[in-house]
Amino acid sequence: MTLRVMEKGDLAAFVGRLIASEPGVVGPVRKDGKHVFARLTGVEDLDLAYTTTLLPPKKYLFPPQETLLRFRLGAPPVVEPVIEASPLVVIGVHPCDLRGIWATDRAFGDDHVDTHYRARREAITLIGADCLPDEHCFCTSVGSHLPEPGTFDLFLTDIGDAFTVEIGSERGRALLGRYGQTRDATAADLAELQKRRHAKEAAVRARLNVDVQMLPLLLESVSGSPVWEQLGSKCLSCGNCNLVCPTCYCFDVGDLMQLNLEEGERVRRWDGCTLVDFATVAGGHNFRREAKSRVRHRYYRKFQYLMTRYGRSFCTGCGRCSRSCLAHINPPDTINALVAEAEREEA
Amino acid sequence: MSTQLALQTGSLYLGRPATVTAVRALTDKEKLFDVELADGPLGHEPGQFVEVSVFGYGEAPISVASSPTAPGGFQLCVRNVGRVTGALHRLQPGAAIAIRGPFGRGFPVDRLRNRDILFVAGGLGLAPLRSLIGYVMDRRSEFGHVTILVGARTPGELLFNDEYAAWARSPDTEVHVTVDRAAEGWTGHVGVITTLFPRIQVDPKTTTAVIVGPPVMYRFALAETFAKGVPEDQVYVSLERRMKCGVGKCGHCQINGVYVCQKGPVFAFAEIAGLEEAL
């Protein structure tokens, strides 16, 4: 059976044993009235009753800055790759963020395998958890509201006095067997799980007024839409949306030298396609000079380019860009305006 | 296959050790570097690019300026415009660098065979184009009539001008050179590169055009080429982008859904005609 039930009182013991025995355990933790994924030093740090975290758990797979190579100058220089990964258990990952990891798995694991990402990915155990949608969430519109088999090791859903625990992998099964106290699920548990899932779905209010699978086709015809002009005139090109996005994975690469000026590192850092100079070349020409073309590029990446390549929306509906945008640009309003425009033109 | 397997355990971002064996100043801003890899030939096609590492400064995408038919290592023509290229310009022969690549899709040599070729090179565009011109010159009998148009802003900015005469001496080959602004001692043509088009004969049925230059040049040079009747699928361009990874991940080279480092940098015009932001 891949579904078990853990009494609420047993969760603390499970997490406590994880923290005591595993080299690294992280989860949602309160910080300044928000939540962030951070290291758990004790069970009391964990707060599963959260809507979203400031940054998605992507940071554990693709850190804001990471060393790719280490070198020592000389004739010749000595260069070695740095593949750094240590075992990590991430507790409390919502379905939308599991979908985000699905997306970065595609991006970094595609035809050219990025070993830096993959080593971290293989070292991570994902314990998902069901969520509390707020007014920005639109996961139901992109199909990322349910825990999808293959994207988690374990998945917890609060069913009142207990949690259901879905087992998604052998690694998850082993972890649960080692540290967790569970029982078989009853028909009543399953009924309650379904009830909770429906209630969650109903609580997601923001939505895209279109079948997301139609978006690659729809976007074909609206690249010249006035919607992009409007967004371009509002966008501050601050890059917040890129920063908080679970599926933005663009990066810059450069060298950092130590103070001895003999040793250094090649590092990659997060970059963002909405930043002014992202598409500027050496001679100074900027191929996306206007904010409207940068905003449009970001939307097309999520709903057309990468979607066409990998078959599913690269927007997870998590709402982080909506929450963080200083100009109140958000995917539901943007997509719905484009849909309305396309419908007007058809009529 | 073997490189793919190697990548599974190593890093995509680890270059091959290489040595700069010669450095020659071509203009005030451009230098030509002869490079040899420690582990064998580069194995590139004309038009491909490499990522060049100067440790301590970083990495930059540079197109290969020499033909694979040339003996020895390969050449990079580098304009001093930034951190990495500035560091390259300060290197002396013997300096150790690293090379990743070759990356991307080069010029379609097989499709060019037996065709007449119109080369249009603006400014630094001659650097990647020279890898193909060299290839055609070395296998001259495999190609038809060759017309080479070269343009630069001033005579001092003309790249590889010591090679034009040799190209022109090849059978069935003509070379036309122009500068936007003349300088003391310049006796050649003056005007932007499109002013050379009235001077040349192009048979649109047998000609393939290969055009490389700065963004501003493409619009005008393409219009002149199409005006000669050359169809869109017989026109090739090479697009400049600031590739940070070379392996279709970092996002910097993306034009709409196309990664220039993977599908380019060489494109048939017909392939990019519908892409906004391409030129």
Spell the H/E element sequence of chain A: EHEEEEEHHEHEEHEHHHHEEHHH
Shape of chain B: globular
> What's the CATH first level of the largest domain in chain B?
Alpha Beta
Any low-confidence stretches of chain B, pLDDT <50, length ≥5? 1-8
How big a fraction of the residues of chain A is strand? 15-25%
DSSP E strands of chain B, number:
15
Query: Can you tell me the overall shape of chain A?
Result: globular
**CA gyration radius of chain B, whole angstroms:** 18 Å
Ends distance of chain B: 34 Å
Number of domains of chain B: 2
In spatial order, strands of the major sheet of chain A run 3-2-6-7-8-9-1-10
Strand order of the largest sheet of chain B: 10-9-8-7-11-12-15
Number of domains of chain A: 2
Taking all residues together, what is the mean pLDDT of chain A?
A: 96
Structural account:
By secondary structure, chain A is α+β, with helices and mostly antiparallel strands. Chain A has 12 helices and 12 strands. Chain B is of the alpha/beta class and 279 residues long. The chains are: A alpha+beta (347), B alpha/beta (279).
In short:
With 347 residues, chain A is an alpha+beta fold. Chain A has 12 helices and 12 strands. Helix content of chain B is 21%, strand content 30%.
Key terms:
heterodimer; A: 347 residues; alpha+beta; 2 domains; four-stranded antiparallel beta sheet; 12 helices; 12 strands; 37% helix; globular; B: 279 residues; Elongation Factor Tu (Ef-tu), domain 3; Rossmann fold; seven-stranded mixed beta sheet; six-stranded antiparallel beta sheet
Secondary-structure map with pairings?
The complex is a heterodimer of chains A (347) and B (279).
Chain A: E1 3-7, H1 8-21, E2 25-31, E3 34-39, E4 65-72, E5 78-81, E6 88-93, H2 95-109, H3 115-122, E7 124-129, H4 139-142, E8 154-158, E9 162-167, H5 170-179, E10 183-184, H6 187-203, H7 215-220, H8 226-234, H9 240-244, E11 251-257, E12 263-270, H10 291-310, H11 320-324, H12 331-346
Parallel strand pairs in A: 2-6, 6-7, 7-8
Antiparallel strand pairs in A: 1-9, 1-10, 2-3, 4-5, 4-12, 8-9, 11-12
Chain B: H1 2-9, E1 16-25, E2 30-37, E3 49-54, E4 58-63, E5 74-79, H2 83-89, E6 96-103, H3 109-112, E7 116-122, H4 126-138, E8 146-152, H5 164-169, E9 173-179, E10 189-190, E11 207-212, H6 215-227, E12 235-238, E13 254-255, E14 258-259, H7 260-263, E15 266-268, H8 269-272
Parallel strand pairs in B: 7-8, 7-11, 8-9, 9-10, 11-12
Antiparallel strand pairs in B: 1-2, 1-6, 2-5, 3-4, 3-6, 12-15, 13-14
